[in-house]
Amino acid sequence: MNWISNYVRPKINSIFSRRETPDNLWSKCDSCGTMLFHRELKDAQNVCPNCDHHMHISPRERFKHLFDGGLFTEVEVPKPIVDPLHFRDQKKYPDRVKIAQKSTGEEDAMLVATGEIQRTPFVLAGQNFKFMGGSMGMFVGNAIVAAANEAIARKCPLVIFTAAGGARMQEGILSLMQMPRTTVAVDMVKEAGLPFIVVLTHPTTGGVTASFAMLGDVHLAEPNALIGFAGARVIEQTIRESLPEGFQRAEYLLDHGMIDRVVARKDIREELVTICRMLMRQSPAIKGDLAACEDDATAETTATGTDSDKGADGDSGKDKKG
Amino acid sequence: MANYLEFEKPLAEIEGKAEELRALARQNSEMDVEKEAEALDQKAADLLAELYRTLTPWRKCQVARHPDRPHCKDYIKALFQEFTPLSGDRNFADDHAVMGGLARFNDRPIVVIGHEKGHDTKSRIERNFGMARPEGYRKAIRLMDLADRFGLPIVTLVDTTGAYPGRGAEERGQSEAIARSTEKCLNVKVPLVSIIIGEGGSGGAVAFAGANRLAMLEHAVYSVISPEGCASILWKDAGKMREAAEALKLTAQDLEKLGVADQIIPEPVGGAQRDPDATIANVGAALEEMLTALDKKTPKELLQERRQKFLDIGTKGLAA
Ligand SMILES: [Zn+2]
To answer: In what helix (H) or strand (E) does residue A239 lie, and over which residues does it extend?
Structure first.
């Protein structure tokens, strides 16, 4: 199999030069204010080592941490018609898109990739909150349809990491139609007998929450992620009372039965593999950091590292592929 | 007419004048005002036709929200026989913002589900102004399951500002309820037809509108966000709702062009509120036509065609 590291189509790469951050920068934790060494923060997947605050992470960065050896293949998303409504507010919609493309280096608000996590094949789709608030328009809809098709073709689980303020208003009704459209897509995965897992990250609200994000076989959420349908301000204005501490946060949703588990970012990788391998009735995975699989050879496994965390004993065996 | 919209003010003046003249004539038998009054009537009729022929998107929003438009309850009463309301989500409560049940439509047994806004202060409060809580969507899911089990077509009447933004609604899973209701629409193996009779407000409307055929009344609107909401976010000024309404392309005419609405049901001149009976009759005719067209489809075709329709939205018929 051909794995291309952090594959970016050359055309896009040349148009938007990715801004590299020098390694010697410091940044401040938005929550506790601790000054954090950039590289240290990056290694911790943008989680503050001092207060455990989970900061924004781009899908590309997240995927590097999730997939074995940081290797994945990007799934091409069919391009939708740009600006079908010729929408213009204070700026033209295509100009807003261009600005977001330039600042994120991405085409739109979702990245889809295939690869292996602990030698288990996965299709991952990640929403990018930094791209126009992660908003769901036709591109995100196309991305989810493409991700669903890819998961079905590869007979592997689909995991969507959500992060969005809602629908992309500039695409009007066509953005709203992505609610039923993405619902059809994830139902196709479920009907194929494959796991559909949702990982809700900060923030996930509006039409995204009220469609594919609430239709997973299993719902995981990152700590303290804001998850809800209506915005807190709108609710407060409507009911004319203030909302309780922790309202619409992951832990609050856990208490109210809307999600299965609150999982720290560093543990998501193992959780996904554990859950999906059981759902797929596969043998336990080999734990630890594995290099990406170089070939397609399969062998019966004796999972040597079942009591985990002991590190990279991945080279000692290969797991069975499903 | 009790309720004039703001843009109907010139019309209200003319109609008021005609009324006044006739009232004067009634008090004074010597006066002959009929000719003059008739001229005013004609002027009013011309103005009304002109106003409604050229409604801007924002004006359409106002018409769609008009309190005198026929509501879900009125359609059910006039179009269906043996309506038997069914209640409750079997879990928490019965949400009065959503009404539904078994009914006959031209002898055909169906399941009808719709948002009901209420018609006076008391009923509006009872109906929560047509803004459903999770229980409303879960009741709808139950009724769609019932229809699916017994092979009955489903008719949904959409008329909501949106799902209710409340603390309890969030705690009981407003998002999940909407997502599941949308999913249920898309998965039933019976014909599902939706008619947007007034406001199709965002996710709260989508939850009932995953239909084989979607019709919209001529002056109904269907949008991802209210023009006011869009204006306050993108223009940072809620007063720019006219611009937002224009940009959002939320009218029935726009949605037909975008391939979202399958057909438009005409309203009487001056809008549904001027002649509810004629409006309801038009809706009845369209409903019969839509259901008949779906009669011949197999359960599998109904499901697959509905899904394909949504997968195709935005990929066909749009000019770049
Ligand atoms: Zn911190």
So the answer is: helix A232-239
